[in-house]
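OP here, attaching both records as promised.
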Amino acid sequence: MDRERTAWAVLCSRARRSVVLIFTGPDVRDVRELAEAADVDFLQTRPGGRIGFSRALLVATPAMVRRARAEDVPKPALVDHDGIVDAFEGKGSTVWYWFNGKWIGLSGSD
C-alpha cells in the first residue's frame, strides 16, 4: 500500500454493520478490514424527508492527507500516496493513511 502498489477500498454492509474492505492484491482473499461501525450511526434525513445511509468513501489525495489533523497518532512527514476519506456525508470524516505498516486515522478537514 505504497506508491508502487494499487489497492482497492470498498464500503460493505453486513448484519447492519459497515466496514471498509481493502483489497491489496490479485487474490480476493487478501483483504483487510478497517473502521467497522454500526450502520445506524450513519443514518440521517435525506432530501425529501427520508432516512438514508450516509457513509461514503472517497480518494484522499496526498494534499488532503497533509491537511488532515493528527490527534493521537504521529502524522507522516512525507505523504507520497493516496489515502481513503471515510465520510459521514455532511457531518465529518476520517482520513485513513497507510503509514509505517499500518492504517492511521486522521481527522478530516471538514
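Record two, same layout:
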Amino acid sequence: MNLTSLSHAQDAAYDLFTEKHNANEVKLNKALDILNLKYGKNTIYFAGAHAAFKDAPIRIAFNHIPEMVVEED
C-alpha cells in the first residue's frame, strides 16, 4: 500500500453549517424543554432570545414541522 498526498487534520476545511452539539449543549436544551413543558411556554429561555419573542412568531420551515407541545406559539 502506498499513501500519497496526505495532509494534517488541522489543514482540513470543515463545513461551516454543520451543527456540532456537545453533550452539555444537548443536556441544557433538554432541561430547557422539560422546564417549559412543566411550567409553561417561555418559562426559561436563553437571554439572547428575550427581544425576539414579539418580533419572531413561530413559522413552519420548509424542512421542519415544529412539535407543537414544545414550540407552541
